[in-house]
Amino acid sequence: MIEREAQIIVTEQLHRSPAVAILGPRQVGKTTLAKQVAASWDSDSLYIDLERPSDVARLRDAELFLQEQTHKLIIIDEIQRKPDLFQLLRSVIDERKANGEKCGQFLLLGSAAIELVQGVSETLAGRIAFFDLGPLNILETTSNNSEKLWLRGGFPDSFLASNDRDSFEWRESFIISYLEKDIPALGPRIPSETLRLFWTMLAHNQGQIINKSQIASSLGVSVTTITRYLDLLVDLMLIRPLRPWSGNIKKRLVKSPKYFVRDSGLVHSLLNIVTNNDLAGHPIAGKSWETFIIENILSVLKKGVVPLFYEATGAAEIDLVLEYGSQRRVGIEIKRSLSPKINKGFFSACKDINITDKFLVYAGTENYKYAKDIEVVSPRRILEIIKNFNP
Question: Which of 152, 189, 251, 312 is the most exposed place for a label (fewest CB within 10 A)?
């Protein structure tokens, strides 16, 4: 079992808040994380899975049942299946708080869904903290070699599979399950073949600005429908939009977001890439590596830091910009190479927007100076730097 760094964060949240919601896609490790937190908690815990009929039956009289579980950390899995519980949880939390239990009452787990987040936020305002759990990152694996994680992605069962073929088959089953079971269960009636094709198109255009009109024409749907598909996959934490930097400068700036499939393993499955040899010769390799590094960096980013990309006329471009308020900007260039070189566009872009800290992430394991103010770092090292960065 891999220990997640998130265990410390969620435990700290529970010490400050009556309830914590862990959100993330299926099979990302929410249940395992919750049980690890419960095992280290200073009171008894109770686990309820709303996908189990027996547990649903226990909540027929949910008010009475929850009132009987005093001084326990109650874990409710797949909470989105019973949104009517939110109002009751508010009452129970307030009652238990009046009896001296201020923190650590409920740990709620759910697939990220707009309705779930809005419902919980509105009903439990001031009583709940949120944590978004993504796939494994480089710091959560033992090796300094990130190739395996890049190929297989960070879903624990995929990463820990006995070989690359088994990992690929797990991801294929995961994709089919989402298309044929999980997404329809949330309400949207979308043909699974259409949504898979759309998902695959996003993988082909990994980390790029997408042409909605072109994709809509290819799928035979409207641009509005494409926007709805995008919103759905973003909501499920399966793809991520990266917004462009915008500000008052004299250059013409790109204004559209870039999109990428958040887990590199899913990118490779959608494109039928099974082994490292398949990946090395594939046109997507460069963009897949870039977005793999970006997603890893964002997994350790502190709250309040804004991730962006910068692109302007004249080839001025920065793969990832991290804004720490108005006084500190980190610029990160990403190269899939063992002997990386920085082009003039990066230097120009850094000057355009006053980048204060510059890093070049490459495929090697050594760390060294590229220039007086630019560090070349390994994937593991950039995560360590950003995780502990204090501007």
Answer: 189
